[in-house]
Amino acid sequence: MSAEDNSSLSPEPHDPSEPASPNSEPPPAGHFEPLPVTPGPAPRRSDSKWFPPENYNVPWNWLDVVLIVPIALAMLFVVALVILGSEVAFFHARPSYLRQHMSFLLISAQIVMELALLGYLALQIHSRGHLPFWTTIGWRPLRPRSVSRGGAYFGFIVSGVVLALLVSLASAAFPPKQPLPIEKIFQTRSLTFLFMATAVLVAPLVEETLFRGYLYPVAARSFGVVGGIFVTGAIFGLLHGSQLWGGWWQIGLLVIVGILFTFARAATRTNVSSFLLHISYNGVQVIGVIVSLYAPKHFLHMH
């Protein structure tokens, strides 16, 4: 049996405001949304003007989502062991060196783990009907209705910058009473730049794939579009709580950020919109860290 016979696919819903062309050809396979390989609940569709109709019957469920946590932890453990073992076997690193650079090694292991996790998801989705990974998990082209695609890209990037500035102001209004765990990362220059590069180059891609691509469709299928937006945003913010532990106001702000990212994903039916928000948001945060850590010293040195 061919892959086409094995997969049950449903075309994207037609926008009634756009007249159909009588000579138009069917869209390529990558523009179709998958239906589950096994029978499941009817797809959730929204009549709201904010959320266009979308088929949320993806070929994974809550059990698959929950299993991501132990799988990720197991991957992180294995990768960390490999990195530490390589340091000892090939570079003859001493225990004192490993203790001194443990945070750097663990962040490096986390980067490898997150990329490996994307590979795991790709294999899982491909095994359930030979479906294309990126489009199935929500990385579809951004198709704005009222502006050009370039204008939409620019709008989401600017929105991410504005959101980051507003969150920074709100966070400064109620600062935490004790240093946050994430601040320990900024004690050394090498660790600071590794973390910032990860925040801009890796985290937006991986987190938008996991939260808005993998988690959100399951949450929307279970709780409806609005419920799925709030559930996904809340989980996104709370899972970052270990970095901000003790800063409860800051964790709450991050939950709001996650909800806004997911709102953009639901309103556009693609992870591209939330990715643009995410990468510009993190970019502003990185610039803020650089300014706070190094600009004062530079100015003091000049004067």
Could you tell me the number of beta strands? 2
What is the global morphology? globular
Helix content range: 55-70%
| Major sheet attributes | 2 strands, antiparallel
Quaternary state reads single chain
**Strand percentage, roughly?**
under 5%
Reading the helices and strands in chain order gives: HEEHHHHHHHHH
Helix/sheet category? mainly alpha
> Average pLDDT, to the nearest integer?
83
Rg over alpha carbons: 22 Å
Total number of helices: 10
What does this structure look like?
Helix content is 65%, strand content 2%. The protein has helices spanning 3-6, 62-91, 95-100, 102-127, 133-136, 149-173, 189-201, 203-239, 248-268, 271-302, and strands at residues 9-11, 32-34. The protein has a two-stranded antiparallel sheet. α7 packs antiparallel against α10 (271-302). It is globular, with a radius of gyration of 22 Å.
Task: Please outline the helices and strands.
Blueprint: H1 3-6, E1 9-11, E2 32-34, H2 62-91, H3 95-100, H4 102-127, H5 133-136, H6 149-173, H7 189-201, H8 203-239, H9 248-268, H10 271-302
Antiparallel strand pairs: 1-2
Helix pairs in contact: 2-4, 4-7, 6-9, 6-10, 7-10, 8-9, 8-10, 9-10
